[in-house]
Amino acid sequence: MAHCILRIALDTPLNAVFDYRWKSGDSGRPHVGQLAMVPFGPREVVGLVVDVLDETDVPEEKLKDALAVRSQLAPLSAQWLALAGFAAEYYQRPLGEVALPGLPKNLRVTSTVALDRAIKKLGKMELPHDPAPAAAPLLNPGQQAAADAIAGAQGFAPFLLYGVTGSGKTEVYLQACAQVLAREPEGQVLVLVPEINLTPQLETNIRARFPGVMLSTLHSRLSEGERMLHWLAAHEGKARIVLGTRLAILASLPHLKLIVIDEEHDPSYKQQEGLRYSARDLAVWRAHQLQLPVVLGSATPSLESWHHALKGRYRKLELRERAVQQAVLPSVKLIDTSRRRGQEGMSEQLVEAIKLRMERGEQSLLFLNRRGYSPVITCESCGWVSECKRCTALMVLHKTDYRLRCHHCSLEMRIPRHCPTCGNIDLQPLGRGTQRIEESLQEMFPQARVLRIDADSTRRKGSAQEAFDSVHRQEVDILVGTQMVAKGHDFKNLTLVGIMNPDSSLFSQDYRASERLFAQLMQVAGRAGRQGGSASEVLVQTSYPEHPLFSALVAHDYDYFANSLLGEREVAGLPPFLYQAILRAEARELEQALEFLRAARGLVAHEGITINDPIPMSMARVHNMERAQLLVESASRPALQAFLKGWMQALREHKTRIKWSLEVDPVDI
Ligand SMILES: Nc1ncnc2c1ncn2[C@@H]1O[C@H](COP(=O)(O)OP(=O)(O)OP(=O)(O)O)[C@@H](O)[C@H]1O
Ligand SMILES: [Zn+2]
Q: In which residues is Zn(2+) 1 bound (predicted)?
């Protein structure tokens, strides 16, 4: 019986691949890209075959047998392996820790029942015969030019589709996609959206327009069975359109021909734990690898993409006008709240504007990026505030279930009846969250149908969708929400947006805060007046109406704002003119974390690399762990990458009990 050696990547933090013996009997020699079951310590685990060899340096007596190969599943392609390999290298993680978690859980279990069931189910799945697609609107000249440029591109072609809110970018994606699918009989298209709540709207559009085409969706709210089926449909090439959130960038797509990243600026494209990858950046890499067009769409592009477009590395396609006839961008007005506070956090102008919408039967949206009732409760007699015992954070009052909750470690308690320090029974909520705004609105407008959409109101599966549907069905007069409602949604009858309190991010120490705030405000403002009709407006309540960020918002001038921020970043030597990574450490005592970082700093030589002093993180304590960080910078990406590689090696060998992690291209500093 012939033997061969399978070199296998496993999902472990050990930066290594492992060799196993395979007795190829009737089943033949396995292939690179197949999944195999192997013994690992006391367990049996599924790994990925990255090489098939005739011999190995591992001594015979140490070599274990691979137990099985998942031969019912076509091997993952060399391109997919290269993608996982690139992500592993770039983000400084072992290959197995990137590749395996990128696959559905049901593929990584010892039993093949779920896989076999999915294969059978997919085999039987049929699409309707000769279905009639919904009519596509006639594109305006800008949209047409954009769709044609994308669909007609040869080779690697990154596009920045820069179109104001409501300019019909979705329609450009759909029609470019239609052209590509018509031309490529097997071709696949990948469409990414930043948030799960944006998938249903787009899914409905895609299904109506491509009824004869199989669509897969990939996001974190699928059950494991669904995820397996949708992943498999993409892997087998049956699903020709794959719609998903950031994790879908790691889908196996053997016939990929076009990638679309909607709202490309959105921070959700960056995974914030484990493998801290940027789905947008991986998308561009994947398009380059496969020599495809990739479309980055946004009304407020990230400064990185904006910079690439200015340098001519990305081709900019512009949509300057709203798509619907007569629809214009809303007029933005600043309301100075530094002198007159108004009633329950709402200025007179805002209240009047809501009243007017109620009379006209139009909808209003109040945006406040803070959930809960109030961010803290306090004792007016001794000054006690509801701090979290485990974090450097305040406990937020949630009035719907009468609890205080820490949003960082999820510690919960009943609202105390009296002050824990002085016994005073008069505890006051301080500041406002979405629940409190909802309550005040209901008191001010008893006849209004008020709906709150935030992470708390949409915990149950399907509830976010129900909420958005009821807004679309005009069953809501006033919508109150966090960033969940701020982007992408195409509300037809919404003519007023009130921005409650944008000031807290104006003076943040994170240099990205103003970029993020501006994008967020432009996006939420862009929910108003999308269908024309009566005049729409955006009212911004601020104590700093003279701040330049607001002048740019009033003028809808993203170009100006982006160019001036970029100018500042260049002078200050910040990204995108500089490349960064952060080493974070956590320990029971802050000093231990700092000490570890100081030691880490001296582990390897670092010419051409700046390693800053270790500092406590801006939120130093979470869940009783003290956290500190070390910022590493270089003007050269290859130099930074080379340094990180050696550094990680040294850190892995450096014995420590401190928990640490590295993030490349951090977005939160
Ligand atoms: N050519 C067209 N003719 C008429 N209506 C159109 C056309 N293209 C798009 N629309 C409509 O314009 C509205 C806005 O389009 P869409 O939601 O795609 O905007 P968007 O550019 O994605 O905006 P945002 O950046 O705010 O998400 C939708 O109601 C859409 O149906
Ligand atoms: Zn906490």
A: 379, 382, 419, 422
